[in-house]
């Protein structure tokens, strides 16, 4: 575009037929001028989102393939993206010089090599095509099946059931799809030496030289043809007869001999002969140059200029915006499962505007924004420093004005001082301003500066919009609020020229442009239109989904707001980055891969946030649970028959365990705990819940929350209006629980559920198995539970303290004893609960129980024993022997603490396990890297669930599960190991119990023999548990030095 | 007294001495460095890894072994292992640098964890991460005191952090029900303690839902209990008023 002026570009923009919107790769002297919009996109797989955004705006793509490396994973990805967007690709096979100079192939070998590459590329296109046909067929079959089923009943006897075994491939025409030199969509090139050709050029040359028709040559120059010199005929079957193919003889041999003469042998005479025969002029300076490459490129760039070859192919083979196929338009405009035909009529009319590609005043304007990119406000055209010319112009103007004023002032006989004529920009620029420019293309109509348009979000429904808005309304009018629709004006329009932006007043149809002023309404991509009937375009399909999660933190905590703002900007600027704040307060950035992450972090540091940041592994959540006691030990021996070996540490534990008289644990796991004032006693047992119950509780948290609200209002004597549907759902939940909790152990358990926890709606249950204690049922809203049969005075007193037990349970389930993570799937059954009534009256008259119970709740929430947090309680403790009850605080508070401790001990009395969060992982991989995928999965404790082949391709789809704890860097590793041929996708799926016991030590003789005394083999659960404990600053059982004798001797004086 | 020559003496290096006074006498045992604290915490289970020799001394550096009579008189037994265990558990010792360092590190983490649990960013109502709090604690050069409880220190840290960053104790959400008669008078008194009043409903009784600083809870509780003579109620709706769930930008 070097020699083309801005005016000329604007003139060219007016005629869409002269526009070529391209994806990867200027202006050639053909019969007419063309305007090419080139969008270059990076090749790394992490940035394939950039390709996605570029491809959407283009009509064609130039795909460049390395002649030596052939088809790489990225080439496949690019081809797939071009295919999905329905744009026409052309192929450039580059770096042919490497075949000659590096690999030293003969022309014959090079020919077969090139043929192979072409076959590879076509094979990729072929699989894309077949998979599409298969999909269509599957869809068709599904429909047919539906129809058939109806029909079957009617003609079941007809016996006309001939199954169609053809795959449908025969019917579909695919000849236009493939790359083939004789189709003219392939260019062979060596960009470094400046040459490139399509076979048309050679066909043209030889048709004159040899007197064979150009069309015949065009068909035979590529393929298994040879020239019969005697008969002067082109014959088929070169390979069989051992003859040189036409392409080798006429094309490659010439290039090979040129390289041989110029580079390899440096034969001066021969070079001169070649130069003479080619009719090119070489400067004496070039021919004398010591580097033969200079001479080579001097000859080649005149003989077979690369630019011309590529550009003529582009102009001839790639479509202009006018030639956009109806199929592509329909595809763009039909979002999701909706078919184009189902869109409203007005919308279908827009398709005409699309196809006509007219830029009349009255045509509806349709623009698609594919991404937003940030630009320094300073570099915008209106803020750019002025050019010399402009400065001179302004100075002239200012001088004139000054002269006028001088003339006027002279009458007042005053001589003002000469003003400095320096020009300053009027607006003081803010240093670190970023402006977002939308990268977009006009699909219909003319984009004008300042025009107001509708911004259509991805979920906008034109039918709904049309019905809500008055007929013929435009974006200037005040319109009623329609979901997913907003209005904004395009402040400036820019022509994108590499890094430069040129301001334009209007941009007609078919052009790529930049728009400023949309940052408020457009997040990443959007459809802009003047007509509300326009549907939003289908979302961009990204080849790589964000997968690598890191937690971002500012170096200085006070800079948090800057970080948040920066991350918001990054989110808008990068189509493939996701940013979220987690419940734990972490700011998590999800990127496509390591390289992408590095760029995002750089952008954050230097452009968006401008602060020091650090990225680290995100916090991994765990859950704690209990399981049934195992029947066999670690070496699969039956536990029942063996003697436990008394080992040192067990004796140790017994002696070290606090000999407290308030706590009693019996060997069936029932824990009895008395409050410090010896007035209340609770007995609790922990039981593992069946997995299905846990899942059910997990999935119905919302319902349990409403149930809790209902119960709370019922307790206060108010009645809340509950919709019959909620009641039905609650009854359903109860029935499901009943069906899942069966067996002797769970008899009547559902009726006795006291509470759920933590936070009153979690996946843990508190059971009321206290004999003689009646409390309003949890299910009382269902009207079935007998309405609180009046019990004795004792029970009434206990009911007041009911809340304390629940609170204790909530606290215990919120953070377990293993590493203070929430519990999951544990049922605590309270089997005994005694209160000495002596204490109660004393408290009942002075305090309202309900209120203190909560008072104490906060105290114990603040970590068990609560001293320092509330001054009042603190004082009560310090007073040594005041009134005996008071020195331990209120009864309800003690009961909470006791209940919490009892639950924790009951939990510890059972075999404890950690639960890890698990991702499901879907991996697409080709057959040759399948083994390596399995290797990476195995190393990271993953488990393959199943694999299947994707129909019509050679890709396998592997479904596996992988612990979240092992997922950091997983995507990157798998990509590295498989050289990018496999790409995983991770989604959180469920919690899973880690089978190994974190507290395990060898106890039986067999285990002792097998593992030794210390069992140093790695225990995954223990590793996780210790990592969490260390992070939280909890006590980790770890020795400072392992072997006392092996420490460095400090005193060496003797 | 035996002859004191280099050949019949056992030299002990890397000794950590644990002393205990019992029955008016001083006893010492010779232990390895960095092991006594582990023994006390239960991480080290092998006594031989802790003790250099199982004999009990009167003075370790001089190599004077305690007399058997004294031992039986003071400890009531002459089982040396038993006595060593007692001294290990209750005796005093110089804590080594490594032991102290690891102890302080753990306490530092613990304080940061408590702060992170209790506090939120007042702008977003989201908690800060432990890492960030640790960073902030380092920035204000907070030094851990080994003899104060971590909770006490956490409160102190929160106070200091407020000066350098946006941080606040997470509020509690309370629901107060006050009888109509005292409502107006009580409300005046409560006004200073309540941070935010979210809703107010006055028909027969005054019902308020409000956010308060957890530190004021006891005061409010006391006030309501005393003034209304048990007729007003106070209910905790949530202990920590924080945003739940993930948020996408």
From TrEMBL, chain A:
<dbReference type="InterPro" id="IPR009000">
    <property type="entry name" value="Transl_B-barrel_sf"/>
</dbReference>
<dbReference type="GO" id="GO:0005829">
    <property type="term" value="C:cytosol"/>
</dbReference>
<feature type="coiled-coil region">
    <location>
        <begin position="130"/>
        <end position="160"/>
    </location>
</feature>
<dbReference type="InterPro" id="IPR041095">
    <property type="entry name" value="EFG_II"/>
</dbReference>
<keyword id="KW-0175">Coiled coil</keyword>
<keyword id="KW-0378">Hydrolase</keyword>
<keyword id="KW-0547">Nucleotide-binding</keyword>
<dbReference type="InterPro" id="IPR014721">
    <property type="entry name" value="Ribsml_uS5_D2-typ_fold_subgr"/>
</dbReference>
<dbReference type="Pfam" id="PF25118">
    <property type="entry name" value="EFL1"/>
</dbReference>
<dbReference type="Pfam" id="PF14492">
    <property type="entry name" value="EFG_III"/>
</dbReference>
<dbReference type="GO" id="GO:1990904">
    <property type="term" value="C:ribonucleoprotein complex"/>
</dbReference>
<feature type="compositionally biased region" description="Basic and acidic residues">
    <location>
        <begin position="397"/>
        <end position="407"/>
    </location>
</feature>
<dbReference type="InterPro" id="IPR035647">
    <property type="entry name" value="EFG_III/V"/>
</dbReference>
<dbReference type="Pfam" id="PF00679">
    <property type="entry name" value="EFG_C"/>
</dbReference>
<feature type="domain" description="Tr-type G">
    <location>
        <begin position="1"/>
        <end position="322"/>
    </location>
</feature>
<dbReference type="GO" id="GO:0003924">
    <property type="term" value="F:GTPase activity"/>
</dbReference>
<dbReference type="InterPro" id="IPR000795">
    <property type="entry name" value="T_Tr_GTP-bd_dom"/>
</dbReference>
<dbReference type="InterPro" id="IPR027417">
    <property type="entry name" value="P-loop_NTPase"/>
</dbReference>
<dbReference type="GO" id="GO:0042256">
    <property type="term" value="P:cytosolic ribosome assembly"/>
</dbReference>
<dbReference type="GO" id="GO:0043022">
    <property type="term" value="F:ribosome binding"/>
</dbReference>
<dbReference type="Pfam" id="PF00009">
    <property type="entry name" value="GTP_EFTU"/>
</dbReference>
<dbReference type="GO" id="GO:0005525">
    <property type="term" value="F:GTP binding"/>
</dbReference>
TrEMBL record, chain B:
<keyword id="KW-0206">Cytoskeleton</keyword>
<dbReference type="InterPro" id="IPR018978">
    <property type="entry name" value="SDO1/SBDS_central"/>
</dbReference>
<comment type="subunit">
    <text>Associates with the 60S ribosomal subunit.</text>
</comment>
<dbReference type="InterPro" id="IPR019783">
    <property type="entry name" value="SDO1/SBDS_N"/>
</dbReference>
<dbReference type="GO" id="GO:0005730">
    <property type="term" value="C:nucleolus"/>
</dbReference>
<keyword id="KW-0963">Cytoplasm</keyword>
<comment type="function">
    <text>Required for the assembly of mature ribosomes and ribosome biogenesis. Together with EFL1, triggers the GTP-dependent release of EIF6 from 60S pre-ribosomes in the cytoplasm, thereby activating ribosomes for translation competence by allowing 80S ribosome assembly and facilitating EIF6 recycling to the nucleus, where it is required for 60S rRNA processing and nuclear export. Required for normal levels of protein synthesis. May play a role in cellular stress resistance. May play a role in cellular response to DNA damage. May play a role in cell proliferation.</text>
</comment>
<dbReference type="Pfam" id="PF09377">
    <property type="entry name" value="SBDS_domain_II"/>
</dbReference>
<dbReference type="GO" id="GO:0005654">
    <property type="term" value="C:nucleoplasm"/>
</dbReference>
<comment type="similarity">
    <text>Belongs to the SDO1/SBDS family.</text>
</comment>
<dbReference type="InterPro" id="IPR037188">
    <property type="entry name" value="Sdo1/SBDS_central_sf"/>
</dbReference>
<protein>
    <recommendedName>
        <fullName>Ribosome maturation protein SBDS</fullName>
    </recommendedName>
</protein>
<keyword id="KW-0539">Nucleus</keyword>
<dbReference type="InterPro" id="IPR039100">
    <property type="entry name" value="Sdo1/SBDS-like"/>
</dbReference>
<keyword id="KW-0690">Ribosome biogenesis</keyword>
<dbReference type="GO" id="GO:0042256">
    <property type="term" value="P:cytosolic ribosome assembly"/>
</dbReference>
<dbReference type="InterPro" id="IPR036786">
    <property type="entry name" value="Ribosome_mat_SBDS_N_sf"/>
</dbReference>
<feature type="domain" description="Ribosome maturation protein SDO1/SBDS C-terminal">
    <location>
        <begin position="172"/>
        <end position="239"/>
    </location>
</feature>
<dbReference type="GO" id="GO:0005819">
    <property type="term" value="C:spindle"/>
</dbReference>
<dbReference type="InterPro" id="IPR002140">
    <property type="entry name" value="Sdo1/SBDS"/>
</dbReference>
<dbReference type="Pfam" id="PF01172">
    <property type="entry name" value="SBDS_N"/>
</dbReference>
<feature type="domain" description="Ribosome maturation protein SDO1/SBDS central">
    <location>
        <begin position="109"/>
        <end position="170"/>
    </location>
</feature>
């Amino acid at each position: 575009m070097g020699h083309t002026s801005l005016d000329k570009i604007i003139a060219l923009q007016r005629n869409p037929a002269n526009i070529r919107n391209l994806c990867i790769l200027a202006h050639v002297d053909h019969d007419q001028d063309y305007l090419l919009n080139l969008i270059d996109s990076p090749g790394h797989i992490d940035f394939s989102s950039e390709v996605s955004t570029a491809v959407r705006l283009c009509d064609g793509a130039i795909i460049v393939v390395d002649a030596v490396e052939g088809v790489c994973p990225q080439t496949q990805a690019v081809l797939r993206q071009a295919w999905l967007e329905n744009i026409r690709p052309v192929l450039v096979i580059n770096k042919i010089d490497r075949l000659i100079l590096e690999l030293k192939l003969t022309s014959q070998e090079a020919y077969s090599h090139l043929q192979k590459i072409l076959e590879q590329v076509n094979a990729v296109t072929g699989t894309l095509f077949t998979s599409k046909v298969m999909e269509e067929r599957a869809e068709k079959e599904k429909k047919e099946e539906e129809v058939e089923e109806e029909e079957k009943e009617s003609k079941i006897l007809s016996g006309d059931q001939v199954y169609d075994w053809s795959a449908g491939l025969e019917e579909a025409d695919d000849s236009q799809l493939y790359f083939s030199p004789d189709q003219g969509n392939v260019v062979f090139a060596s960009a470094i030496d400046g040459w490139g050709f399509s076979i048309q050029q050679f066909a043209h040359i030889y048709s004159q030289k040899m007197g064979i028709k150009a069309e015949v040559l065009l068909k035979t120059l590529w393929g298994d043809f040879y020239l019969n010199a005697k008969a002067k005929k082109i014959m088929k079957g070169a390979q069989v007869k051992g003859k040189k193919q036409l392409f080798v003889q006429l094309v490659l041999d010439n290039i090979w001999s040129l390289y041989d003469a110029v580079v390899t042998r440096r034969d001066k005479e021969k070079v001169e002969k070649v130069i003479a025969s080619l009719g090119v002029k070489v400067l004496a300076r070039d021919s004398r140059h010591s580097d033969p490459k200079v001479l080579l490129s001097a000859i080649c760039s005149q003989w077979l200029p690369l630019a011309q070859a590529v550009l003529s192919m582009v102009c001839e083979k790639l479509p202009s915006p006018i030639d956009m196929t109806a199929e592509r338009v329909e595809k763009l405009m039909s979002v999701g499962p909706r078919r184009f035909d189902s869109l409203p009529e007005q919308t279908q009319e827009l398709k005409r505007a699309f196809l006509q590609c007219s830029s009349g005043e009255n045509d509806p304007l349709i623009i698609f924004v594919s991404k937003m990119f940030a630009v320094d406000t300073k570099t915008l055209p209106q803020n750019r420093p002025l050019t010399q010319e402009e400065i001179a112009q302004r100075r002239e103007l200012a001088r004139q004005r000054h002269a006028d004023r001088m003339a006027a002032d002279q009458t007042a006989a005053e001589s003002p001082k000469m003003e400095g004529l320096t020009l300053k920009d009027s607006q003081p620029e803010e240093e670190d301003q970023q402006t977002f420019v939308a990268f977009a293309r006009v699909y219909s109509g003319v984009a004008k500066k300042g025009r107001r348009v509708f911004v259509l979000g991805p979920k906008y429904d034109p039918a709904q919009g049309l019905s809500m808005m008055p007929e013929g309304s435009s974006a200037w009018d005040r319109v009623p609020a329609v979901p997913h629709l907003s209005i904004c004006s395009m402040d400036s329009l820019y022509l994108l020229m590499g890094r430069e932006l040129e301001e334009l007043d209007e941009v007609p149809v078919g052009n790529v442009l930049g728009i400023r002023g949309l940052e408020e309404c457009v997040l990443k991509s959007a459809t802009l239109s003047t007509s509300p009937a326009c549907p939003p375009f289908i979302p961009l399909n990204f080849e790589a989904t964000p997968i690598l999660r890191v937690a971002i933190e500012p170096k200085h905590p006070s800079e948090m707001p800057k970080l948040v703002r920066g991350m918001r900007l990054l989110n808008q600027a990068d189509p493939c980055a996701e940013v979220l704040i987690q419940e734990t307060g972490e700011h998590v950035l999800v990127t496509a891969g390591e390289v992408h992450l590095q760029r995002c972090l750089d952008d954050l540091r230097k452009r968006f946030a401008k602060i020091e940041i650090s990225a680290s592994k995100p916090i991994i959540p765990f859950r704690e649970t209990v399981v049934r006691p195992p029947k066999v030990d670690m070496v699969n021996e039956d536990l029942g028959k063996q003697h436990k070996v008394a080992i040192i540490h067990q004796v140790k534990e017994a002696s070290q365990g606090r000999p407290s008289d308030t706590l009693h644990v019996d060997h069936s796991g029932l824990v009895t705990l008395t409050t410090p004032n010896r007035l209340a006693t609770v007995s609790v047992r922990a039981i593992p819940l069946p997995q299905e119950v846990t899942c059910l509780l997990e999935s119905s948290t919302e319902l349990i929350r409403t149930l809790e609200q209902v119960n709370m209002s019922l307790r206060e004597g108010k009645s809340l209006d509950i919709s019959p549907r909620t009641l039905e759902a609650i009854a359903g939940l109860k029935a499901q629980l009943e069906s899942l909790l069966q067996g002797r152990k769970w008899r009547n358990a559902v009726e006795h559920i006291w509470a759920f926890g933590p936070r009153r709606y979690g996946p843990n249950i508190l059971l009321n198995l206290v004999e003689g204690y009646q409390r309003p049922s949890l299910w009382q809203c269902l009207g079935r539970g007998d309405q609180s049969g009046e019990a004795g005075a004792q029970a009434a007193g206990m009911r007041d303290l009911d809340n304390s037990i629940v609170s204790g349970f909530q606290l215990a389930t919120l953070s377990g004893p293993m590493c203070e993570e929430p519990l999951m799937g544990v049922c605590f059954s309270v089997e005994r609960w005694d209160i000495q009534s002596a204490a109660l009256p004393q408290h009942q008259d002075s305090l309202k129980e309900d209120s203190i119970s909560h008072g104490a709740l906060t105290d114990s929430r603040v970590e068990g024993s609560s001293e320092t947090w509330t001054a009042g309680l603190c004082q009560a403790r310090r007073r040594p022997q005041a009134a005996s009850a008071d020195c331990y605080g209120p009864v309800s508070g003690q009961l909470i603490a006791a209940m919490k401790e009892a639950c924790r001990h009951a939990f510890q009395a059972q075999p404890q396990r950690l639960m890890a969060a698990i991702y499901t992982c879907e991996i697409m991989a080709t057959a040759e890297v399948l083994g390596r995928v399995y290797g990476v999965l195995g190393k990271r404790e993953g488990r393959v669930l199943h694999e299947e082949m994707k129909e019509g391709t050679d890709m396998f789809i592997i479904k596996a599960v992988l612990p979240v704890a092992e997922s950091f860097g997983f995507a990157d590793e798998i990509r590295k190991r498989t050289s990018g041929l496999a790409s995983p996708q991770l989604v959180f799926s469920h919690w899973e119990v880690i089978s190994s016991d974190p507290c395990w030590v060898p106890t039986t003789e067999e285990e002792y023999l097998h593992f030794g005394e210390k069992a140093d083999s790695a225990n995954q659960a223990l590793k996780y548990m210790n990592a969490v404990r260390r992070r939280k600053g909890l006590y980790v059982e770890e020795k400072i030095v392992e072997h006392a004798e092996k420490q460095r001797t400090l005193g060496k004086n003797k | 007294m035996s002859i004191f020559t280099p050949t019949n003496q056992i030299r002990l290096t890397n000794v950590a001495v644990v002393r205990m006074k019992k029955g008016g006498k001083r006893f010492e045992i010779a232990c390895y460095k960095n092991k006594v604290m582990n023994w006390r915490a239960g991480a080290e289970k092998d006594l031989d890894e802790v003790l250099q020799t199982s004999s009990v001394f009167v003075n370790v550096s001089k190599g004077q072994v305690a007399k058997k009579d004294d031992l039986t008189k003071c400890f009531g037994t002459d089982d040396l292992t038993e006595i060593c265990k007692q001294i290990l558990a209750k005796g005093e010792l110089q804590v080594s640098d490594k032991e102290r360092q690891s102890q302080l590190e753990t306490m530092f983490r613990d304080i940061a964890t408590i702060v992170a649990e209790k506090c939120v960013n007042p702008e977003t109502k989201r908690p800060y991460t432990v890492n960030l709090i640790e960073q902030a604690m380092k920035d204000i050069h907070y030094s851990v005191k080994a003899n104060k409880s971590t909770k006490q220190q956490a409160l102190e840290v929160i106070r200091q952090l407020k000066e350098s960053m946006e941080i606040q104790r997470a509020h509690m959400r309370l629901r107060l029900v006050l009888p109509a008669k005292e409502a107006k008078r009580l409300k005046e008194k409560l006004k200073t303690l309540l941070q935010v009043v979210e809703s107010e409903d006055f028909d027969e009784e005054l019902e308020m839902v409000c956010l308060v600083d957890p530190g004021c809870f006891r005061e409010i509780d006391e006030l309501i209990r005393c003034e209304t003579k048990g007729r007003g109620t106070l209910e905790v709706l949530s202990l920590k008023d924080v945003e739940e769930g993930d948020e996408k930008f």
